[in-house]
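Pilot study result, target chain (297 residues):
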Amino acid sequence: MKASNWARTAIGGVLVVVIVHATVAVGGRAAEVPPQDLERIRSATPSEPAARVAKPRKVLVFSRADGFVHDSIPWGAAAVRILGEKTGAYAAVLSDDLVMFDREPLAQFDAVVMNNNCGNPIVDPRRRANLIEFVRSGRGLVGIHCAAHLDWPEYTDMLGGYSIDHPWNAGSTVTVKLEEPGHPLLRGVATSSFPHTDEIFIFDHFSRDRVRILLSIDTEKTDMSKPGVKRARGNFPLSWTRAYGKGRVFYSAFGHQKDVYWRPNILQHYLAGIQFALGDLDETPKKIETPRKWEKP
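Predicted structure:
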């Protein structure tokens, strides 16, 4: 979805456009989520926020990809929008317009959701610096699935990991383990290990010392004989949080497939993660003071 009209209005200081459709440019064409899938998402969305909303919040859902373009991108954007609308947790603006990362438009938001942005979608050094500073200064960042595969070292450092492969291709089922069953971002997700069908990443440029893992692959209940698994070096995270400067970061690897976005427990997890990034849901995130050198595998 292009949001350039919204951006011009916001720069003028008044917001007059309300975005109600989940139409996002995918592979150079507009893709709209069909009504029956929107209803599935609405039906699976929680009715209440995961935490008390301290003040009105605004979220940018950025859906541009410059690499492999997931067909599920509009479904992810719709899910994030509906989560905010139905629960009242935040208002979402859906866009693939790079002008949103200019300083003044970006300042309108409390968090940015990077929605399956494989490749190199933001190349302008000023816009890159604006996003880094946006989070470092106290705002939020949420990454969905391929948001961990951007060719941008500083962003990878901020997010906490880089996806290098998916030994479990789309349609594969793994068993997911709750690393901290009592964690507030896991309320309503599950009470014990659960199966999840999706494309499943493994990560590099990742360390348990730098992030707080919430969900991971249960290696005792998952087929670990897939080619490429050894590259993960024993770490199989699926979602995590971390602090970056004064800001908050939440990432989840779920979201390759369209149907992921009408699974109630996954939507509950994303809602909690977004509210964490916004500052309404608290934990004690881990913090890294000195970023380690990043090298592309």
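One observation from the pilot: The chain has one domain: 4-278. A full batch analysis is planned for the follow-on phase.
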